[in-house]
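job 3f2a | input accepted
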Amino acid sequence: MKPYLKWTAISVGSIVAIAHIGVLGHLVRRQPDRVQVPTINIPRGTPYSSYKIEAGKDGYTIEYKANDPAILESHRSLNLDQEKKGLFGGGSEQRNEYRHDQYTMEGVRNMGGAATPDEGKSAKDVECIVADAGARSQGAMAGSAITAGVVVPAVVNIPYIGWLAAGWATLLGQNVGSAVGSEVGQVFNDC
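job 3f2a | predicted structure (191 res):
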C-alpha cells in the first residue's frame, strides 16, 4: 500500500472517530432535568385580532380570533319630550327611539336580509374549493408515497443525518405532490 493512501485513510478514520466521540459525549452530558421554555409564535393578523394563551407544565394552548369582534355594534337612543306651540294652540310631543345596528368591519350596516348574489361564493366557487381540497390531499398522499419508495431508501443510509434527510425528502414529496394535485384538479374541474 502506498504511504500517502495509508496516511489519508488514517486521517479520515481519525476524524470520523473523533466525531463519534464528540457526538456521544454531547448525548451523555445532556441534562434532562433542565426545563425548556417553549417559544410561542403569536400569529400576526388584523388590528382587531385577539389572543388567549394558557401555559402549564404539560404545554400551552393558544386561542386566536381574527377580526375579533367580527361584528361591530352601535346602540343609539333618543328621548324627546317637548311642548309644541303652533298656530292653533299648544300641544306636546313625546318620542322615544332606540336603534341597535350591527356593522361589518368594512363599515357596511347589516340590514338583516339575505345576501345578494354578488356577495359570498357561487356554487361553482364552492365546487372548485372542494375539488381543490380533494386534489391537494390526493396529490400529497401520492407524492409522499412516491418519495418514500424511491428517494427515502437512497438518503436514509447517509451517515449521521440519513434519518433527518429521509424526513425532509418525505415532506418535500408531500408538498410537491399537493401542489401538482392542485394544478391537475384545476384542469380537470374547469376552475
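job 3f2a | Residues 40-70 form one domain.
job 3f2a | closed
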